[in-house]
Amino acid sequence: MKIRVLGCSGGIGGTSRTTSLLVDTDILVDCGTGVGELPLEELLLVDHVFLTHSHLDHIALLPMLIDTVGDLRARPITVYAAEETLRILRAHIFNWLVWPDFTAIPDRIHPMLRMQPVQVGEVVSLGERSVQVLPALHSVPAVGYCLSCGGDQLAFSGDTSVCDQQIAALNALENLRYLLIETAFPNEHQDLAHAARHLSPSMLHSVLERLTGNPDVFVTHFKPGYSDVLAQEILLCNGRLRPQVLLNEQCFYL
User: Collapsing DSSP states into helix, strand and coil, what is residue 37?
Assistant: First the structure.
């Protein structure tokens, strides 16, 4: 299993691309602006999209993806997400006002888009690969995911604040090799982090101190205006786990 970082920023500008991970050739985890880096022939290969939550930086290119490739494909793209997230997509995106309802195009028997609700703890099996749904704590209903192919595991926190349930779920993973975890605001704006239910570097440190495994930790979702100070504060974390800054086009292999 190959996981390629298409985008890992909390905003746009310059080389900043919002969150999306490409798993092998056919799975996306989130569908932010990073997806726009893929050429058409690679977009056509995407069969599955796992969304962590409904915020625009994580779904921005989902409508465009389906509009671009839907009538060129023989089967629908399946979007997996918590039921609350799918309800938001139906009501506010695929509603014929913001964007067409591709679950009904060309008709509901043969749609271009299929929505599949998932719950925390559920494991979706795609051949030899598995995607386990992890808890998260954000300002809207949200989840994280754990990816594996029968051996090592990679966990992605999604957008989250300090979440006891997520920490417990991470500690329960027996083969956690990589942890991709968010941090959006620097320590001086910890009040914003709390209000928006994101992590700051000090909050990240408190999470890492509670982990019992020994994964390589990569930090994602920097707000572009704070990137430099966040990188500095992340590198000052001096606990047992030493986080690194996640980069566009970084790849992980499981």
Answer: helix
The full set of domains in the chain, from first to last, is: 2-253 (3.60.15.10)
Please give the model's pTM, rounded to 2 decimal places: 0.97
8 Å CB contact between 205 and 239: yes
Q: How many residues does the chain have?
A: 254
Half-sphere CA count of 80, side-chain side, radius 13 A = 21
Mean pLDDT, contiguous 10-residue spans, the chain (254 residues): 98 96 98 97 98 98 98 97 98 98 96 98 97 98 97 97 98 98 96 95 97 98 95 90 97 98
| CA–CA gap between residue 80 and residue 151 (Å, rounded) | 23
Burial class (CB in 10 A: 0-12, 13-18, 19+), 141: middle
Q: What angle do CA 247, 198, 254 make, to 5 degrees?
A: 40
Instruction: Please state the three-class secondary structure of 89-119 as a single string.
Output: HHHHCECCCCECCHHHCECCCCECEEEEECC
Is the separation of the CB atoms in 135 and 145 below 8 Å? no
Closest CA to 136 of 79, 205, 208, 82: 82
